[in-house]
Amino acid sequence: xxxxxxxxxxxxxxxxxxxxxxxxxxxxxxxxxxxxxxxxxxxxxxxxxxxxxxxxxxxxxxxxxxxxxxxxxxxxxxxxxxxxxxxxxxxxxxxxxxxx
Amino acid sequence: xxxxxxxxxxxxxxxxxxxxxxxxxxxxxxxxxxxxxxxxxxxxxxxxxxxxxxxxxxxxxxxxxxxxxxxxxxxxxxxxxxxxxxxxxxxxxxxxxxxxxxxxxxxxxxxxxxxxxxxxxxxxxxxxxxxxxxxxxxxxxxxxxxxxxxxxxxxxxxxxxxxxxxxxxxxxxxxxxxxxxxxxxxxxxxxxxxxxxxxxxxxxxxxxxxxxxxxxxxxxxxxxxxxxxxxxxxxxxxxxxxxxxxxxxxxxxxxxxxxxxxxxxxxxxxxxxxxxxxxxxxxxxxxxxxxxxxxxxxxxxxxxxxxxxxxxxxxxxxxxxxxxxxx
Lengths: 100, 327
Known about the structure:
The complex is a heterodimer. Chain A is of the alpha+beta class. Chain A has a single domain, classed as Alpha-Beta Plaits (2-Layer Sandwich), CATH 3.30.70.120. Helices cover about 25% and strands about 40% of the residues of chain A. Chain A has a four-stranded antiparallel sheet with strand order 2-5-1-6, covered by helices on one side. A two-stranded antiparallel sheet of chain A has the order 3-4. In chain A, a hairpin with a 2-residue loop joins strand 3 (about 40) and strand 4 (about 45). By secondary structure, chain B is mainly alpha-helical. Chain B has a single domain, classed as Up-down Bundle (Na+/H+ antiporter like fold), CATH 1.20.1530.20. The chains are: A alpha+beta, B mainly alpha. The interface of A and B includes residues 45 and 54 of A.
């Protein structure tokens, strides 16, 4: 079985900006995404998720390495300053690279 | 009935007592927690129930009676941010973004506060216009839009532009968010169906309503209780603002309600709406479009100060004011 290296970009952010983040990821070349509700705490305080709007969401996409860097750069310039969020990439290996 | 009996009858309603239980659960760090989707489910139920009921009342009364007080309510909602903004800027020393954000929350409305007020009026057998939920529906959006425009610093040359994706998303949220959509949608459905339609859904939307409301307020109590710790962060000014703004706005609403021909009960409801602050639609729209604003200020004030004040003391206060101003 041949596995191909790709990048997994993970964004954990305020639920209220989920749609905007997905828009940006799509514009950068993501073919799809996975999102789930999460909770936790960070430098900007507890994200208790008791009101849907004060919850956190984790968004993941698998993309080519160059795309991953472009994504992180855009998230950095457009969102990092104003919103409670983290974004990072990690290496993953997939069976069907043309899917991404 | 005198004022103290009114306060007592309000405080001893299941809704308010369950709210207190919720606050206690949060403060005592109890392990009580609602499943995530229940809060949303209860919100949807309550909005549809009052929207539908209001629609049936509009069907009975006719739009000719409803439009004037509804227009007055809408204008009042849009105007509130215009005077709260300068007060927050000058006296409160808040930044442009924070002042606009708080102003948006206070001009917009809280559906649950409104429902609690209708409950209070029912419990003391005070009649009111059942179509008053139309006021709730039209008061949610205008203030959010005005507050966001102010928060973007338009007065000082800032930009409010539709090319800003945050502003676009916020406008859609303000105009077509779930609150407005469900309220106006079920109001239209209710007004098309009339009394016959009501008879068919009564068993679900009317009979269990009080129980659902009690459940919802238990959850609201926990949500508000978790934010009590933030009171220390918001400062004395916002504490005072969170109590005086609803009082002032409530009296203006009661006054206006009488002028446009509402009954004592109806004027009380318009007062309560003017006094209430949004903690669902406004926070989301403001967060999207004015991200520099600190959400702790507006949400803590709306949820941990103004909401508890209104559902405990505010409602009987505004009822007394309505009786005095429009005997």
